[in-house]
Amino acid sequence: MQESPALSKKHATSQSLGKLVDFDQTPYGIAGNTDYGRFEVMAYSDHTFRIRITLEENFETLSYALVAEPKTELVQIEDTDNEIILRSNAMELRVSKDTVRFSFYDLNGNLLNEDDKAFGTSWIGEQVTTYKTMQDGERFIGLGEKTGPLDRRGKGYQNWNTDRFAYGPEADPLYATIPFYIGLHHGLAYGIFFDNSHKSHFNFGASNDRFSSFSADSGEMNYYFMFESSLPGIINEYTTLTGTIELPPRWSIGFQQCRYSYYPDKAVETLARNFREKSIPADVIVFDIHYMEAYKIFTWDKDTFPDPAGLLKKLRDQGFHVVVMCDPGIKIEEAYEPYLDGLEKDVFLKYPDGSPYSGEVWPGWCHFPDFTNEKTREWWASKFKGYMELGVDGFWNDMNEIATWGQMLPELIEFEFEGQKATTRKGRNIYGLMMAKSTFEGTKALLNGKRPFNLTRAGYSGIQRYGALWTGDNVASDEHMIAGVRLVNSLGVSGVTYCGFDTGGFAGDANVNLFTRWLTIGAFTPFFRVHAMINSRASEPWSYGEESEQTSRNYISLRYRMMPYLYSLFYEASQSGMPVSRTLALEHPHEDRVYDHRYQNQFTFGPYVMVAPVESYKEFLQVFLPKGDWYGFHDGKKYQGDQEVIVPAPLDKLPLFIKGGAILPMQKNIQHDGEDPGPDLILHVYNGQKNTAFELYEDDGTSYAYEKGAYRKRKISFSPSEKQIHISEGEGTYSSPFSRIKLVLHGFENLAASINGAELPLEKSYFSFLQPITKFDPLGAEGSVEKETIQGGTFDIPSGDIKVTW
């Protein structure tokens, strides 16, 4: 193959890729030259093609996002007079020759996506852009942590990780860069992941009616095109490229309480005692920045926390885990060991003249570790030993955009990039990812087989491999509450399963209604934490009066009762990338009402529980029920789907619906994950018209023993035509704590049931997921929860498969 004559030539006006000069077949696809640049096509699976386009002599070799490798012999190549056709078992790519453009089709010849014929991939100076023809009615979802509507058509976004304190509901950019989106049109769907960590821009028809586009201020055009028959399939392709979550410690998906900040130590002890005395479940107390001496990481304030080892032991004895704040800034101070050691080990980001970069942040003037250097990552990991010895097993990576006072990080700072040096222009968007990687891998190595919990504010694609992400410094308002729901749902379809928001709002003061409503919604997010800033009103579950406290107790307790279901969803995410909080677009991508402003905030918690978020000042809500049977969560009322209904929305009853055919494994209420859940697996099954199945996953929740087979998986299926619930014996060596099943049947008529052929006595009773709330009013009227009539029976779990028939 000849060298393209125009390589490295820069233009001030737009210059497209040009005509094909020549091409060669490679083990993975093809590589070609044009009269202006060079390109390469590689197959990563039958469903994923990688397109790389550059003006340079060589393609870039380093991606911190990617974990997959291309595959050989997946495509057949046909060379015609006008185009090159690459065909896999799932799709085909047509590369035109006269002007090199890329068009993607399914195997039935339906157009999925194509370059704008005039512009294709073009450059303006260093900036590289790919322009795509917008299809009739095309919608766009995803792109990670982006505000705005579910359907991003008509909007434009920028990726430049930014510290955005008290950001507005339409603010952009925010803290994290996830340059992956899904396009939808004519009953088809595709995904595009643009892997370039420079400042990037996505335009979905903003200020033009001709194209969508994605661009970067420098670097190569490097994107992955994915096609599958379903959105879960596309997400699976994306997370095959960038990785899935590791199973987190189960305690970390319980309730977490945080404040900026709880101090001194007696305040933390009082907080823990209140949770236990008030019977409000919780697993985590988070130590914000004031636990440190003068805000310096790896230190403890000797006045306010004189005995951290003793404090942490008291908390452990009550069933609490401690998560500590970790900021990257290392204070420039002669008596501060991490600073002196960091200088000696040469681990800090530098200016081009070799001097360390200094920026001002919480501790004062600081240097910052260069996490794109392996020796820095090893140095960082070693500093966590002191935390480990105290019993800390959770870590919170904050201020890692990088945030500094003035918010103008110089762009000439140099990053090591594993020996391929680059500047802030390329390094800023991946700094949070690499800090999270360093913290996660470093603490994992020190925890002696236990799983660490790791949380980060900033990130880039692939961040899901290293822990949870939360949506930063939000505001106590209804607008932010609802916008946060969309942020979490967008992150979910962008591969970031373990995510959430600061429930109750970080900045500003929530009122009773807002906090109560927000907490009921937060109970159905993957990461569930209350967090409020300094000088704001207290935001503990008991801070807003007795009715609010009981509602908070109800919904936090409900989450703990649903832990067998929730933990199984996290296992599913670790295998396939499926989100826990799922926008309705995931299962109904071509239903117009899903994108209506009235319904776009609705989501399902796993496959079966539909949540309809509603502002705190509304007493009724209009809800869209997709096709199928639905049951009111609170009263068991049955609804036919494919309709819109108006339902009451009192503060103590968030509008929730259960899908017909739902299988919800639950347990008794516990106060923290370390408490024995008892012998009963409480299995709720809702009558429906279609076959359904759920995989119940169990392990010890803390170690990596599951990687060696110490887990238990059971497939639970419901067949209305066979009138049967089937529970498989399952696989794995883990001994489940559950020895009995309490079967709770919803929406069934009077039944006579049997288990493996023997009679199973069923009883009718009244049932509610929530406890009554006593309303204190002048007349002394007492409120109550709605109750549903159900049937149920209890049986010991036998060896082998279980068949319940009626």
Describe the structure concisely.
By secondary structure, the protein is an alpha+beta fold. It has eleven helices and 54 strands. The chain has a nine-stranded parallel β-sheet. An eight-stranded antiparallel β-sheet has the order 2-3-4-5-20-17-16-13.
- Beta percentage is 25-35%
Number of helical elements: 11
Based on Cα principal axes, name the global outline: globular
Strand order of the largest sheet: 33-32-30-27-23-22-21-35-34
Are there runs of 5+ residues with pLDDT below 50, and where?
Answer: 776-784
Helix- and strand-based class? alpha+beta
How many individual β-strands?
Answer: 54
Gyration radius (Cα, Å) is 27 Å
The span between the termini is 70 Å
Q: Into which percent range does the helicity of residues fall?
A: 10-25%
How confident is the prediction overall: mean pLDDT? 95
Largest sheet: 9 strands, parallel
